[in-house]
Amino acid sequence: MLAQGATPPAATTAAAPVDPRLEKLKAEALVMVESRAKQVQEIVDMLFSFQELGFQEFESQRYITTLLAKEGFTIEKGVAGIPSAWTAKWSYGTGKPEISLGSDVDGIPQASNKPGVGYKDPMVTGGPGHGEGHNSGQAVNIVAAIVVKQLMQRDKINGTLLLWPGIAEEQMAGKAFLVRAGIFKNTDVTLFTHVGNDLGVSWGASGSSALLSAEFRFKGSSAHAAGSPWSGKSALDAVMLMGQGWEYKREHLRLQQRSHYVIKDGGDQPNVVPSTASIWFYFREQDYPRTMALFEVGKKVAEGAAMMTDTKLDTILILGSGWSGHFSKPIAQAMHANVQTVGMPKWDDKDQTLAKGIQKELGSPDFGLSEQVNKELRGAETPQNWMGGGSDDIGDVSWNMPTITLRYPSNIPGLPGHNWANAIAMATPIAHKGALAGAKVQALTMLDIMLTPKVVADAWDYFKNVQTKNVTYTPFIRPQDMPPTYLNADIMARYKTQLQKFYYDPTKFKTYMEQLGIEYPTVRPQVVAPKGDDGREKQ
Questions:
Q1: 201 lies in a domain?
Q2: 199 lies in the same domain as 235
Q3: 505, exposed or middle or buried, with CB in 10 Å at 0-12, 13-18, 19+?
Q4: pLDDT of amino acid 18
Q5: Are residue 166 and residue 255 in the same domain, yes or no?
Q6: pTM, rounded to two decimals
């Protein structure tokens, strides 16, 4: 299934030779990316300082689009009906191939923490933070794109660069709408980036879950909760019964499924029987059919809860979704070779001290940061021993064109994820070095795609004859579903004034940690256990 309007490259390009300029240009690109280490640091630190949640990434949008406009990219804001979304495009010559470069930008609620501090020390108590590390990926793409653009102009290399953000990835509510809006209709290959603690890529079926995000809204009737509760019909009772009903049903579902919920509306005040209430579910399963089946179970439980409470299941909103990803083997092979060339960053003692400090703080094995890349390229056409897990809506993009995800090492192993602890490295030399390594791999892979037509032709051959041979992409979102751009607006409004005090000013400070007055690294002092007469630690 091609992206709307997309046309794969002609098969006749499959035998085209490698451009003899390629290796020389790759060597130049490595030097040019390295020379932009300061720019990588500034982008990473700036986006960290905004600490914006999904659908509210407006400071990030303003900063990035201003930067890219100055570099000659054509900017379009508010794409796909998402005000905080944008695209930045630049073309040369024929404009083919078109490479899209994406990375997420949103943060995590209640994940605020000072960077470089190896224990819980929030910048804004209760405030959002980059507890997933999404502040780092745009630096990878932007610096790689600027370098490759300069080489394209100088050497007259045909192609198009399309940069875009993953909006509201934590709500899984952005990329399916971008696909539906035709943002990728001319794209040949998508190179996506996501923060990790290693440098690598894989191909084939991902370990991620497909996901459908749905809010169930119930409607009852109010009454005086003490004077005449029998006159009311509690929508909150329906919400609570749906949650309880799901817990009983959970025992009889596949072990691989993941499902979780929060109550978004539980009424106004205790002395009024709630006339409205809602519960928000994430349903996750292996693929589209199984996830839709899980959703159908959820709808039955909701209908039962409404019947028991004599309320009405008023609305079921689909707020977001994502297919489980499938990634291009030919593109991954090209990128894996570049990973071997670049290798892991050189961590110093300070980097390792921060990593081991937070690992000890959380009771994880304190093995520090990884220092070697995987020599083998991993992947499989079908899921292997799949037991469920997290999700990423890059899956929707991957089922519409050849796509890969580059993992780059800007975070620390052994952390819980979606947590304040995952924010502490994200405006430190760990994040800066990891993003710089990712930018190098990204730039080299872009050159492979532009100067080796066989890579693109092979990618589309794999896409058509392997990946989508027996699978047809069907979006979870329905035609009437619109991006829920109101999400997180209330949280950001609550904390915006406090957050603004901490925006990074690179004209005055070399790094964000310098602006905050943080000594790197700051970790808890290690307590040495007293020893007995025999030299052993006392228990």
A1: yes
A2: no
A3: exposed
A4: 78
A5: no
A6: 0.94
